Amino acid sequence: HVQLLESGGGLVQAGGSLRLSCAASGTIFDRNDMAWYRQVPGAQRELVASISRDGYANYADSVKGRFTISRDNAKDLVFLQMNSLKFEDTAVYYCFAAEPAPGGALEFWGQGTQVTVSS
User: Fold this and answer.
1) Where are the beta strands (DSSP E) in the chain?
2) Is the pLDDT of residue 119 over 90?
3) Given this model, what pLDDT does residue 113 score?
4) What pLDDT does 95 receive?
5) Torsion of CA 98, 55, 62, 80, to 10 degrees
């Protein structure tokens, strides 16, 4: 079965940087569209950035110019480089995979990693 394991979260001061990693297993990684979502208590999970199997990236307006999503298909990894972090970036960040399947896609989530930005 598909597993997604995030790492790289932590506590950082505003203006600092963090790099999140997500290691995928149990799937043919280079066929998947991948994404990072985030969630704060009491709010819906929101899309931060996505990257297609072809490497096309898309970003939420709130992170454009500060965050970069990338993937390493040889190592089954997806990354989120977060620069110029703001207090409002504080959230639990989740790795997401959409695996092609007959009739649609199967969706998988990691367990999440906490990012805390101190002001």
Assistant:
1) 3-7, 10-13, 18-25, 33-39, 46-51, 57-59, 67-72, 77-82, 91-101, 104-109, 113-118
2) no
3) 98
4) 98
5) 80
The H-assigned helical ranges of the chain are none
Q: What b/e readout covers 54-66, taking b as 16+ CB neighbours within 10 angstroms?
A: eeeeebeeebeee
Of the given ranges (28-32, 67-71, 82-86, 94-98), which has the lowest mean pLDDT?
28-32
Residue 114 C-alpha from the chain's centroid: 12
Query: Can you tell me the distance from the alpha carbon of 47 to that of 35, in angstroms, rounded to the nearest whole number?
Result: 8
Strands of 77-82's sheet in order across: 3-7, 18-25, 77-82, 67-72
